[in-house]
Amino acid sequence: xxxxxxxxxxxxxxxxxxxxxxxxxxxxxxxxxxxxxxxxxxxxxxxxxxxxxxxxxxxxxxxxxxxxxxxxxxxxxxxxxxxxxxxxxxxxxxxxxxxxxxxxxxxxxxxxxxxxxxxxxxxxxxxxxxxxxxxxxxxxxxxxxxxxxxxxxxxxxxxxxxxxxxxxxxxxxxxxxxxxxxxxxxxxxxxxxxxxxxxxxxxxxxxxxxxxxx
Length: 214
Prior knowledge:
The chain is of the alpha+beta class.
């Protein structure tokens, strides 16, 4: 004969809060964001959670803000103090990360466009939420005789350029490089650089920058 084991009363009381937090924070992608959502859903202050769990309030704050991950032991203590199982704290995180792992930009979708030199050069961002990503893909379009502004990014910034149409002249530091369709260029973007179209037709290239800079 099987015996029904009842869930501890504290956990039964916490169950509605788990469901509320899950609905309100479906996009939470970290343990810290999940912990903050669960704590807020129960209206538990950070100090009260620290007292109940034995985990320092400053540590909880750093976990919730993503400044540190915390240990498995601290996670277990925090979940227990909220009347939850450790699986409640981790629920949905991997699914949320997977959901946000891909950004699709339809062919017909417009992107942010930055125009230079009275319309002779245009930079179109090819993805959204640039500053949350590690790469910044841009379509550069330069009319005959046009050029981009001279740029100098912070140290550690790199760029990759691939010519899709026409011809380009890349000025990097004191050097000048002639590029045509199918040519590519990889450069240290902290060195002053600019692109110019010396040809008689519109030139286009794919430019990828890491980390993103605007």
